[in-house]
Structure formats: C-alpha cells, structure tokens
Amino acid sequence: MLLEQIKGPQDLKQLTKEELQQVVEEARTALLEKISQYGGHNGPNLGVVEMTVALHYVFDSPKDQFVFDVSHQTYVHKMLTGRAQAFLDQAHYNEVSGYTNPLESEHDLFTIGHTSTSLSLANGLAKARDLKKETSNVIAVIGDGSLSGGLAYEGLNNISELGTNTIVIVNDNDQSIAENHGGLYKNLKELRETNGQAENNFFQSLGLDYRYLEAGNDLTALIELFEEVKDQKEPIVLHIHTTKGKGFSYAEANREKFHAGGPFSLETGEYLRSSKPIETYSSLTTDFLLQKMNEDPTVVAVNAGTPMILFSPEQRQQVGSQFVDVGIAEEHAATMTAGLAKGGVKPVWAVHSPFLQRSYDQISHDLALNRLSGTILVTLASVNGMNDESHLGIFDIPFLSHIPNLVYLAPTTKEEYLAMLEWSIDQTDQLVAIRVPVGPVTSTGEVDQTDYSQLYKNKVMQKGEKVAILGLGNFYGLAEEVATELKERQLTATVINPAFISGLDTELLDELKETHQLIVTLEDGILEGGYGQMVAGYLGNEAIHVQTYGLDKAFHDRYEVAALLAENGLTLENIVKNIEQTLTEA
Amino acid sequence: MLLEQIKGPQDLKQLTKEELQQVVEEARTALLEKISQYGGHNGPNLGVVEMTVALHYVFDSPKDQFVFDVSHQTYVHKMLTGRAQAFLDQAHYNEVSGYTNPLESEHDLFTIGHTSTSLSLANGLAKARDLKKETSNVIAVIGDGSLSGGLAYEGLNNISELGTNTIVIVNDNDQSIAENHGGLYKNLKELRETNGQAENNFFQSLGLDYRYLEAGNDLTALIELFEEVKDQKEPIVLHIHTTKGKGFSYAEANREKFHAGGPFSLETGEYLRSSKPIETYSSLTTDFLLQKMNEDPTVVAVNAGTPMILFSPEQRQQVGSQFVDVGIAEEHAATMTAGLAKGGVKPVWAVHSPFLQRSYDQISHDLALNRLSGTILVTLASVNGMNDESHLGIFDIPFLSHIPNLVYLAPTTKEEYLAMLEWSIDQTDQLVAIRVPVGPVTSTGEVDQTDYSQLYKNKVMQKGEKVAILGLGNFYGLAEEVATELKERQLTATVINPAFISGLDTELLDELKETHQLIVTLEDGILEGGYGQMVAGYLGNEAIHVQTYGLDKAFHDRYEVAALLAENGLTLENIVKNIEQTLTEA
C-alpha cells in the first residue's frame, strides 16, 4: 500500500502518475471503509479525492497555503499530510477531527466549520504575503454550495481588488447540502453546459480570470491545470466540475442523503440507524408545521441550506411555495423573514444555534428594531447539540436574548413547545425565538393552556421553602431531580420553569427574595452573559443568595457531555451539596 | 410653491411634466437649505431628487412598496409623502428622522440604517405578496456602495430565484461613503462606459434582466423607464447613473467630504465646525497608527467602507498598501483580519460599534476560535455615540465580551489607550478588542506601564472601605465623581478601573467580598448581559451586595443623553443615594 508510506506531500511528489492514481484508489477505499463504519461527510470527500492528490502533488504545502471552505472535505488532505493512519486503522479513527485543525498539522491553517469563509481568509493570507514581500501560492477550495453565502462574494470582490496570486478553486458538484438555490446556480449550470464558455460569467463579471475543467475527477487533467496556474501573479478562478459521492454509486445517486451521516452499509447504501424513536422534537416540529401550513396558506417556512431540519425532499414537494430554502445564506434568511412579516404573512425560520450567530445584525436591525413578528426556531441549542468546536450550540443565550424586542422562549415539554409554536406563529406583536428542546421528548399528556402573550410570566411548578430552583428549558429536568433529592433530605424546594429566557419575572423574584434564602439557576449554555447572571444582577443588592450554573466560556471540542457538565459543577450531587452548604451558613 | 401643496404621492400624479420639474427644483432647494443648516446625508439625497419624484409619480405607494437601502437617501421621499414641512420650515426640521421610519408614514416600510439589507427585505415582501396572491410592485433602491455587502448579493441571488416582480434600482453614483473597493466596481464602470452593453454583466450573470440608464438625473428619462417596467412579472435590475451631490458644485466635486455632515456654507462649501479640539481619541488613533505603520511595515489597518475613522484621503495615500478598505463588508473585514494574522502580519481593524455586530460570527468563528491575534478598535461604543436607533453603540459589551478567546479592553485615559494599542498590536497571543473611549480626552500625563498580558488584572485606583466602585471605561470618570461625593460625606470608597471587560479579576473580587459591604458597577452600555451582571453572578452566593448600573435594553432613538442616563438611575445623586441606603441597611 502506497498510502501508508506517505508521511507528507513531499513523499507524494516522488511518485509516478500511475502510482498517484493508485494513491487515489487507496484513498477512496480507505475513505469508504472509514465513513461507512464511523460516519462523516461522505459525498464531499468522495468527490475530491483526485483533486486533493493533484493539489498536494503540484503545490508545496505549507509554503503554499491551502484554505478549504467549511473544511469538511479534507479527509484525503489529512491522509496525505501525515494522518493516514486515522483513516486506515480503526483504532485511530477518532484521532482526527472532521475539519482542518492547526493542532493536528502545519498543513491545516485554520479551524473551520462554517461556510463561505475561505475566500476572505485566503485574501488575508495573500495580503500578508504581499506585505512581507514573499512569494507563494494561496489556494482556496470552495464548493458551489458555499458560494451562496454573501461572505464568499465579499471575498471574491476583494480578491479581485487585491489583484495578486490567489487561486480560487470552485469545486462544483452541483449540490449544496441539499439542492442549490439562487440565481448564481443558473450561471454555474450554463458554464458547465458550455464547457465554461457561456456568455454570462459571474466570476469574470467580478474582474477575475477564469478557467473551466469538466473532468474534475481526472487526476491527469487536474495536475495539468494546477501546474499551468501555479505561481501566476494574478488571481484566478478554476471552476472544476466534480461528482459528489464519486466512486460509491449510492452516494452519487442520492447526494442529499449522502452529504453526511453514517455509519452505512457499503453493500446496500442504507444507513445503519439504531432504532430511532418515533417521536422527536424534530418530528413534532415537522408534523406541526405540515398541518399548520395546510390550514393556513400564509404560514411560510424559511431555511438557509439545511432544509432537512424541517422537511424531507418529499415533504418539501408537498408544501410547495410555502417553503423557501435560500441557500446557505443565514443573513438573507433573517432579513427575508423581516420582509415576509412586514408583507403580512407568517414566517417560521428554522436554524441551528451555531449558524444563527451568522445573522446577529439581521435579527437585531431588520427584525427586532422593526418590531416585526415572526418565529425563529433555534435548533441544537444545547450542550447536547453538535460537539465540534465550530458547531457549538451553547452561545445563543448570551448573543440572542439581550437583543431588544425579541422574546426568547425555552419550552420544557412537548406540550409547551407546541403551545409556544401555535402562539408565536399566529400573533403579530412580537419577534419570537423558541429554543427547541434537545433530547428525548417529555410529555405531560395535558394540553398547555398558558397564555404566552403575558410576557415573562414564569411557571411555579412546585411551591416550597428556603430554596427556589429555576431550571431553564433543557435543564428543567435537572431542577426537578435536584428537588427530588432535596425532598429526600426533608427539604421541599420551590421549582420554577422560567419558560422565558430574554427577561425576568420580576414580580416573582421580588416575592422570592422575601420568602426564600437561595435561588439556583440552571441553564444549558455558557454562564457568562446568560440567564443566571441576569437573575444575579437583578437580586445583587438583596440579601438572598443566588447560585448560577452553566458552562464556562470556551470552544469545547469533541467533549463528553457528562464530563464537561461535571467540570462545570453541573451534577446533581454538587448542586445539592452547594445548596445545603449555603442554607446551613445562611 | 408646489412642494407645499403635495400631501402625498396622489398629488404628484396630477402635475404636468413641467410642474414635476418644478417640484424637483423646489425639493433640491429645500434640501440644500436644510442640510446646510442642519446637516445630514448631503450627497446621497442631492443625487436622487429626480429619481424620487419619478418613482412616486409612476408607482403607487404604499400599494407598491419601496425599500430604500440604508434609507439615508429618503429626504425627498419624505417631502413627497406628507412631510415637506420638516424640510421647508426650520421650526420643524427635527420632526423627521434621517432614515425611513414606519412611525412617521405608511410610505416608510422599515426602520433602516445599515447597508445592503434592501434586496432581502424586498425579496420577503415579494414572496409575501405572491403567497397572498396579490399584485403590486416591490421596488428596492440600492446604491453602488451598498452592493459591496454580501447580504446584497444574497438578496440578488434570491430575487432571481423567486422570479417574480421585484424592481431593483441600482443608484450608481460611483461612490460609496468613500471610494468604492472590489471587483464589482470594475464591472459597474465598464457598464457605465458602454451604456450598459459591456460583455460582462454582474446582474445578468445572476440570471436577472438588466436595463441601463445613463441620464439618471433626467426626470423624463426616469419616468419613461419606470413606466416601462411597472407591473412586469419578472424581476429586473435598473442600473441608473446618477450624480452624487447633484446641484451643489462643492458636493459634486468632493463626494467623500459631502457624503454626510454639516452644517456648511452654501457659498463656500466649507463645514461650519465649532472649533474642534486639537486632540481627540480619533486623532490619537490616527497619529499612533501613522507612526507605528511607518516603523513596522507589517502593521496593516483594515476598514470596511468608513476609512475616515482612521485616515483622511491624503493619509490613505501616505500609508499605501498598509491600509485596506474592503468596501462596506464588515464580515470580510473580520475574516480577512484572521487571514492577515495567520499570515504573520499585524492587523488593526477599526469599526463603529453598531456595525461591528455585522461580524459576530466572523469574530467568533474565524478569529477567536482560531486563537488568532489581531486588534479590533471598537469606535463610538457609548451612550454618547450616534443616537439613531439603528446606530446605537450600547450593545457591544453583551455581544462581544462573551466570545471565548477574546480580550475586550476598556481604556479610561489617553495613556492607557496608547499603552493598550501598543501591547495589542505587537503581541501574538490574543485576539484583542479595544473599546476606544468616547468623549473628551483625559490624560494622566504619565506613560502607562501596565503589563496587559496579565489578563484581567484590575487597577485599584483608590483604596477605601465599605464600598468599591468599578467604573468601566467611559464611566470611570463617573466612579471618581461618586467617590468624591462620598468623600464629602466622610466615606472613602475603593475606586477600581477594571480595564478589562471580557473577564473578572476574581482574586480582587474575592478580597473585596471579605473587606467590603457593597460593590457598585458602572458601564456605558445596556445592563443586560453586560459587565455588572458578570460581577453579580460571580458574587451571587456571597453576603456582599452588588449594585449594577447601565442602560435598559431598548432601541433608544434620538435621545438626550442626560435624560436617558437619569431614567436609568445613572446620576451622581441617585448612585450616591443608593450606596448610602445600602450601607445603612447592611
């Protein structure tokens, strides 16, 4: 096996073209072995095996600098830069992350997990090179799907302005995570169909040189192309047509299904799912919206490039024009939602917490400042969400809940969630965000009759004494557990479901400060800038004690949830101990 | 005078072409009278007088819906929609805001003050119209300068995708706030020079129909063009060449100077400045950077479309390639800064607080997550910054300071500011943001020798008893005033300059909690999610009292600073009273 012997790009450069082709085959085999067992970004990596081998053969990393957009397509890059074992030996599978990571290799320049950033990063690298009067190639690899993000356009604009060596590789597999959306994709299609000769050319219109390569999975053609542009002085766009999922027929045939996921069967192309619960908060959302949209043709669901959060391809067909996927363009999703609300329809925008932060200004300036209604469904907002450092769902309380005119809700059960959804979609007074619960569905079995237009009214679930525990959203269950434990120790705690994140029930807190000695807050996110600190600030000048629990402010990476919670004192034992200690001393 | 008689667009429609031209002249005269006395966005409004009259003559607002990008060019729109008096009568000048405002008129759909949002808003309005099966025209007016923002591109992309009536008017006066930057502007220039016939066409490459009009200040030509496209089913881009500052020779000749400002002399074209202090925090920044950049060719200043924050046009020439204006594209500015830092140079990115929020994700994901160094100068971050509701500088502490790996500094004097700058630019361990002081320069006269690499070490400026006052940044002076007042009442307070916003000096707080009865925090921004609440959270379980002072969470509009501070308890009298009350009761 050649792949095992490649310790870095320099080893690749010694090989013949035939041996390079063998490396391609070995890499693809290793890729399929690992992803079928371990899961990952399947389609994107299968599609760029040849391109990655060609890039490392022609260019001289790390002197020449590669930036991979999203960097989810860098498995082969990792194989060729000293990390092959993590793809060849099951025992080492977990030794590399799914993205580029400077801690792993000098060939990984950035930790990247969000889309559309590569061109701006490359522009900065090129400018730094020029200021230092050095010469090298800066190469950005960006997928067609990532070109829908405005930042990519800003990057192209400024690469053209700088005017020095920057090689932009558009890896066009005619697919985003799901299908592409936007006028640009008509142009990419024209360009593919005319072998790059179409009259309209988006890249040339921005003043950039342009080359098209149809044979994007042909190693020889790729090497030739890269050799031709290497060391050129001006920026250039190389538009390369690749096949997403290349070499695995099921992935080639079903590009959305095989964008990411796993493990799966190499024989049948079926995902090996552990038996999935029938009802999840995701399925509840989908079912609710399908019915609501059917009843009310002015309800419109909005999403930025991750439609599967809400609907399967078939369901998207079913709801037709009542669903809008704007491409990976979270800013547009937010601002379009503002336009929809102003236009008198009922928008529901669903977005994962780590990507919501891409729209901070649009939520503030376009939606909240304008006091427009509309519903934002914030998904995967939890320590139990995704656990890659670039995909954390633990920062949304600090960045979202302090925007004026925005009501951020934290449901704790299925019934609350559905009642909040129903209220939010139909009302026209408030911008509402709902922190969709993460974890198994809990149900009271009783319809929630709460009037959520009474803003910031908390729910006292159990009246007790001495200590009041405010369990926010996903951590309400922990509040109940603490209360149960205290009960065994002969203390009946007051248990509160705040339901609202973005403001306090000051009437209740004013009452508690007279009647209780301690308030405990539990939140599923970082502590700093969060809910508990609001409570502590409000009661800072009072005699009552306030203990706040949440996570420390850090980009935690591939963590074990239980361990991280324990490090942050978020265990039943620790909380009970601290409560008892404070009550004893008080 | 015709203008006085126009109470709404319907009155305009009754006029002859000659009378319409008279309205144009009257509007321009009124505009010049008001802006020369009152200030405002001069060039943008002078350039669109004819266009605005033509738009309201041809289209039927509010049934047809106008969205003006940034909406700083809507003075004539306001004149024609029932608000002429606010431009004709000095006594009423202050009755309209400088931006569209739904509270003023049904013809103003949105409150808008940030760039590049209009196309996405229009896309939402058009989609809402389609869902409701209504017919009307949706018209977005966007300047060439605003097209540098990625959101505008996302909007164009999705307008093309939707494929129904949306009239995008590109008001091209070949100028942003300062000069334009980016590849797009080469294309706009080609298009202007070929009467719209250039081979490359950015808009057509996105699948949009396109029309060019060279005579953008010709009323008749504009009316003809708008009548031709009114009610058409497909989206279209109307690229219209206008003259920024049209009708005022000084503004036409000096487009950057007359973008905004005032009052000025109509005779000499000079701004009537009250005598400006020689030294401001702005001049200190400029002087420092000019020297630093001269000494170190790897220091590079970055800015997004507001270069005058740092340098005059002449100074920009002087620093040459060590200054980069990326156009109005704050996301790119942040991510390019990450690339520059990784590339081994020393980037300094200067940005007004209200626009900083456009880069939340890029600061978090591209800079902070990657632990890259680099300096962000946050300007106008204060209740004393701009006071339009879309331009507030009071939210940056909550949204910026809770991002991991980011050190946010709050200097209180000239010497501190310069020492922080010096440290930040040269070090390579931290991403540093500096909240540039707002207000008159204060000076100790002594070089600040603080070692800021000792993160989160606060400065105890006066040791006292019972109460410790933490005066953050701009509000440090208030802390001193409170201490002086307490001193007169025989109480020596401890006075602390935290210097750091993004974390606490826990060692100091642990000491204070044993030795003092009360901690008071003062911060120049909203209270929620801010610095004081961090302090209160840290000390929540302790006996010591914490009083937090800051502004309420709201989009305050055109406020009087003193009144707003008083409403929020931020007066010397109130703070002293509260301190005394707590100390008496404690």
From TrEMBL, chains A, B:
Organism whose genome encodes this protein: Candidatus Enterococcus mangumiae
Domain Transketolase-like pyrimidine-binding: 279-444
Family statement drawn from the similarity comment of this UniProt entry: Belongs to the transketolase family. DXPS subfamily.
Cofactor(s) needed by this chain: Mg(2+)
SMART domains per UniProt: Transket_pyr (SM00861)
Signal peptide limits: none
Pathway: Metabolic intermediate biosynthesis; 1-deoxy-D-xylulose 5-phosphate biosynthesis; 1-deoxy-D-xylulose 5-phosphate from D-glyceraldehyde 3-phosphate and pyruvate: step 1/1
Name listed for the protein in its UniProt record: 1-deoxy-D-xylulose-5-phosphate synthase
Lineage: Bacteria, Bacillati, Bacillota, Bacilli, Lactobacillales
